[in-house]
Specification:
- The protein has about 375 residues and is of the alpha/beta class.
- About 40% of the residues lie in helices and about 15% in strands.
- The protein is built from 14 helices and twelve strands.
- It has a six-stranded mixed β-sheet with strand order 1-2-12-7-10-11, sandwiched between helices.
- Helix 3 crosses helix 4.
- The longest helix is centred in the C-terminal third of the chain and has 15 residues.
- The mean pLDDT is about 95.
- The structure holds ligand AN7.
- Ligand AN7 binds next to helix 4 and helix 9.
């Protein structure tokens, strides 16, 4: 019989800090498709898969962490939650706070979040404040609010978020039967690279199960982690925080990542890299995904694919490997980019009169 996915907490309860008594706040997140990317596989000679996180309830990977953070907020007796966000965290926090019956405050950088994400936060009834500053300024304020005021912080500095997000790695291994050789993903605030690495490490070690005793490791290995930042917002490449991050990929327009040390650890322990891709490379990968793979993502989500294509061009992608790329958020979050052609002009749909012959002519079709 078909199995209804129960959300990441119930699916992975034993590996998360919850008990049977925990009140679980879920919208059914996780269980997202691992799509075989035919054209990227043909390009590289490796088996390339896309973990399509846009299929989560609010359209991004943030939901995996938010189910845990909101569950923790309820357990702590919180009445209100707060987050800073480039957009996706706020959309997710607003939805999960609604499901939990909590008030939600979101701080976003003025003018720098996409309309889809802004609309989600408003739709779910969050109190949204546009701060005259960037994401890093917003996070600074959110942390201070969490410390000194009666609001519960649900940014990824809250360890519950990382716990939830590590389930992405579990799903990849459960689906492939082992860890991939490489895991590629965009890096912004660096919570996700931290979480995936944690998940992969946990799955590669024996596990003390409460119900079943000591279980063997699920995977035989851990992947090499490859993270990619936008060139104008690449503090890990610079080696220090950036005060004025800038990129069209607003999701990852972050100059001072909160999970700095754990991201460096993921990179170094896995023998991986964190490198930069330009906005042009991001938009080109965005176009590749939609036009060649059939997967529509938001620009920031394409940074990992841009990185793989760039490294392939440099001769640095080995053939015959298994490569998973997390594409982090849905294309409908920020759809305007698809309507720009490669030379930067706007796509204009062709207008025709209401008549089959005119339409056939416009299509270059001849009558059979
Ligand atoms: C689509 O929503 O930081 O490196 O406030 O929305 O874990 O931060 C979003 C980040 C990648 C980077 N892709 O992940 C926020 C926020 C998308 C994103 C990232 C984000 P992290």
């Amino acid at each position: 019989m078909a199995h209804q996915w129960r959300g990441v907490i119930r699916e992975y309860a034993e590996r998360l800090p919850v008990t049977e008594e925990t009140t679980v706040i879920t919208l059914g997140e996780g269980g997202t498709p691992l799509v075989h990317a035919q054209q990227l596989s043909a390009l590289t000679g490796s088996d390339v898969y896309l973990k399509v996180e846009g299929m989560n309830p609010t359209g991004s990977f943030k939901d995996r962490g938010m189910t845990m953070a909101m569950t923790a907020a309820v357990a702590a007796g919180a009445k209100a939650v707060v987050c800073a966000s480039t957009g996706n965290t706020s959309a997710s926090a607003a939805a999960y706070a609604t499901a939990a019956g909590l008030k939600c405050v979101v701080l976003v950088p003025e003018g720098k979040i996409s309309m889809g994400k802004l609309s989600q936060a408003i739709a779910h009834g969050a109190t949204l404040l546009q701060v005259d500053g960037n994401f890093d300024d917003c996070l600074d304020i959110a942390r201070k609010l969490g410390e000194s005021y009666p609001v519960f912080l649900v940014n990824s500095v809250n360890p519950a978020r990382i716990e939830g997000q590590k389930t992405g790695a579990f799903e990849v291994v459960d689906w492939l039967g082992d860890a991939p050789d490489f895991h590629v993903l965009p890096v912004g605030n660096a919570g996700n690279i931290t979480a995936y690495w944690k998940g992969y490490k946990e799955y590669s070690a024996p596990f003390e199960s409460i119900t079943a005793g000591t279980l063997a490791a699920v995977s035989t290995r851990t992947p090499v982690m490859w993270g990619f930042q936008a060139a104008g917002a690449a503090p890990f490449v610079a080696g220090h925080p950036i005060t004025e991050p800038d990129t069209i990929a607003t999701a990852i327009r972050i100059g001072n990542p909160a999970s700095w040390e754990t991201a460096i650890a993921a990179r170094d322990e896995s023998g991986g890299v964190i490198e930069a891709v330009t906005d042009e490379e991001i938009l080109s990968a965005h176009r590749w995904l939609s036009a060649r793979e059939g997967v529509f993502v938001e620009p920031g989500s394409a940074a990992g694919v841009a990185g793989l294509i760039k490294k392939h061009a440099a001769g640095e992608v080995p053939a015959g490997k298994t490569i998973v790329i997390t594409v982090t958020g849905h294309g409908l979050k920020d759809p305007q980019w698809a309507l720009r052609t490669e030379d930067g002009s706007e796509v204009q749909p062709v207008k025709v009169s209401n008549d089959v012959v005119t339409v056939a002519t416009a299509l270059g079709l001849e009558e059979k």
